[in-house]
Specification:
It is a single chain. The protein is built from four helices and two strands, in the order αααββα. The chain is mainly alpha-helical and 107 residues long. It has one domain (6-97): Winged helix-like DNA-binding domain superfamily/Winged helix DNA-binding domain (Arc Repressor Mutant, subunit A). The chain has a two-stranded antiparallel ribbon. Helix 1 packs across helix 2 (24-35).
């Protein structure tokens, strides 16, 4: 299994959470609010493009809006591949965390 980067994983989770409202700005805002990470807009769009090319996300253009000067938003959606990757990551993380011994620090 080829794992996505941590940023890609967080973006996949954000797209899943935001559902029909997942576009660049809302993804960036969500990650800032929830993870405390203030990505640049390029720090969001470059991995989004990579995830689309890897087949983990699909995208569609929304309708043009006057508020955006006639430009449309590009919305993102998880694909079956994206969901499978996130489930694999969760299973792997759970296996790695299971039955870890307690850490005792000595001063």
């Amino acid at each position: 299994m080829k794992l996505p980067s941590r940023t890609e994983e967080l973006i996949l989770l954000a797209v899943w959470r935001l559902e029909e409202n997942a576009y660049g700005i809302t993804i960036r805002r969500y990650l800032k609010e929830e993870a405390g990470i203030d990505y640049s807009i390029g720090g969001i769009y470059v991995p989004l493009e990579r995830l689309v090319s890897k087949g983990m996300l699909s995208s569609r253009q929304g309708d043009p809006t006057p508020a955006r000067g006639g430009m449309s938003k590009r919305y993102f959606q998880l694909t079956a591949e994206g969901v499978a990757v996130l489930r694999d990551i969760r299973a792997l993380t759970n296996r790695l965390w299971d039955n870890l011994p307690d850490i005792v620090f000595h001063n």
